Amino acid sequence: MIHFKKYLIFLALSLFAFANAQKKFTIVLDAGHGGTDIGANRTYSDLGHVVEKNITLPVVLKLGRLLEKNKDFKVIYTRKLDETLTLTFRTQTSNKNKADLFISVHCNAGRQATSPPGTETFVMGPAQNNVNLEVAKAENDVIYLNEEDKEFFGSYDPKSPESLIALKIQQSKYLESSLLLGSLVEENFVKKDKRISRGVKQDNLHVLRLNAMPSVLIETGFVSNHDEAEYLISEKGQNEIAESIYNAIISYKKAMDRNADKNDEKKEEPKPVEQPLSNDFRILLMSTPAKYNDGDPALKGLNYILTIKENGQYKYYFATTNMASIRDSNLKTAKDAGFKNAVAIGFVPNQALADGYYTLELAVTKDKLSSKSPIFSALKEKDVKREKSGGKFYYTFGQFKTLEDAVKSKKDLEERGIKNIVIQKIL
Ligand SMILES: [Zn+2]
């Protein structure tokens, strides 16, 4: 699944390189949150329940109407209704449509009951301070509403301190244009609307991370500040915000057109679409006699680890892909997380072991498992093999010829409540 989806995204990114020159300037408008994901919110005695998703949608619809009046623009909405979207859907919508610009509209809330007011615009880039990391964590939390997103964005857990340290500069050729748009938006908020701006900031927000186009995330104000909340829910406030963003887009496009004219003579050849490799690649993080369960600090915040035990050594593998570019970026993620000796290892897909087999190590214990163990509610006792060695009991299940079959059975047992299963290679 993860495989296929990464490949799709990759295709979308590659096709983007062929975007034709004469098309309309396409803008994806993303009204933050929606449906069951209500976003930031506060309740006031005079204003009632002020909810982020109910502000971002009208602002985006007003902005969209302004843009649609202009024949140069094509507008795509990630949502026009109050509905829950996955983050994967938001980024895929933009990439599929070969958009020129991605604008995500949000509202802030402080951690305290009340907070100072202000707008801020985020672009994709390295986080500069801890305050930004707080925003990144709050907005990134949205991802974890959905299993599909969890797997797709599984490369790190934004809540783990190790992974926050590991968030390194993501090289982005769109950074400069995103910064330009961000500064135009904030400038209009200050000059035209007399708002307080907290500036343009760089951060590692998932919603911006996979976009193959200049992208900004605009925090249009704090719902946790009474006066700003009142402004944000007002018709006047929403109109002003939409106009300020619209004017910024107009200035931005003029600047881009001037640049394009300059660069017209030296057009770059589009890159060919990358072909999948014949092998699957996993990143070997370490090989050790110690067994680490999911979420152990030794795994430094990396998720979706496949553990394969061989000759008493546990080998920890991270991510699977058959695309060279994704393999290289997975390797970089592992190194950034602190696995300096990580290497990419090729696996022949569906290769049956000539001798031996794979089995699933369900548990290693000092005492015999009781019949109430979750293992025995998922499996019949007679199907589980128990062996005693070095004063410990080893519980294993099944014999599989291919790694893929073992992984499938492991996933199945995990769904039935058995955690931290290790695949063991017996030769
Ligand atoms: Zn938000």
Summarize the entry for a quick read:
By secondary structure, the protein is α/β, with parallel strands linked by helices. It is built from 13 helices and 16 strands. The radius of gyration is 25 Å and the shape is elongated.
3D structure, described in words:
This protein has 427 residues and is of the alpha/beta class. The chain folds into 2 domains: 24-263, Aminopeptidase; 280-426, no CATH class. Helices cover 36% and strands 25% of the residues. It contains 13 helices and 16 strands. The chain has helices at residues 2-16, 52-68, 87-96, 130-140, 147-152, 161-166, 175-191, 206-209, 226-233, 235-263, 324-336, 374-378, 403-415, and strands at residues 25-31, 41-44, 48-51, 73-77, 101-108, 119-124, 197-203, 215-222, 280-288, 305-310, 313-321, 343-347, 357-365, 384-389, 392-400, 422-426. The strands form 3 sheets. Strands 12-9-11-10-16-13-15-14 form an 8-stranded mixed β-sheet. Strands 4-1-5-8-6-7 form a 6-stranded mixed β-sheet, with helices on both faces. The protein has a two-stranded antiparallel ribbon with strand order 2-3. The chain binds zinc ion.
